[in-house]
Design a protein that fits this description.
Elements: H1 5-27, H2 31-48, H3 51-67, H4 71-84, H5 88-105, H6 120-128, H7 135-149, H8 153-166, H9 171-185, H10 189-199, H11 208-213
Amino acid sequence: MTDGPSVVGSGYQAHRAAFAVFAEQLRKDDRRAALAAAHAVHDQVLAAGHLDLRGVALNCVGLAQFELGEFAAAVESYQRAKDLSRRSDVRGFAALRANLARIAAGESVAYPQVWEADSAPGQLAALARSEHPHLAPAAGVELGRLLCGEQHFLAAIRAYWAVVDSGHPWFRLRAAAPLAKLLREAGDHEGASRVLDYASPEADTPHLVDLALAPLGRPGGAALLAGPGPARSWPLPRRGPGLRPC
């Protein structure tokens, strides 16, 4: 089987409904239904012999497993997607998400000790500071979500802001919405508006499923994760009384 638009395009058309069911369930945050739908679409493309579509389907399985907290299973799904697919965009997404799932699989339950070097937040923080063009902003988004959930709000703001500053064409959008929410709750409404204007001037923040399914509409194996754009720096907000969990 060759890797090209005719194979992926025709395969996607044949299985469009199954991929759409998965996407709808994940966007609705019905994680169990999304996982079942992802397994179903994988079984369909496996039976049809679409090797590269199997990689896309396994990335979908991994997404649902990660959202369910099944981190070790997600690592396995992503690794299978990376091993099976010959497309660079499918393999790149799988490698990136597998790294994040590995960190999550070994995370400590002692979340208040956020900056311990061997804790999952510490690993995420180190990866976020690594300047890797894709893994660093991806880790920053996950770190911000973890810190926010544990009510380390100013640290979460810094993590999200670093991602927005990176200028990454996709991950900055993922960080902008939660960052703006925290800024509004800190009383910095102007800062929140500026972040949203800069990071997402023309579209809503995309869902992870959009990135996972993007190869279905792309010819060949073109790189999906483009390099970061120009950075933009903003001042940290005033400490406000209204900060609440994300």
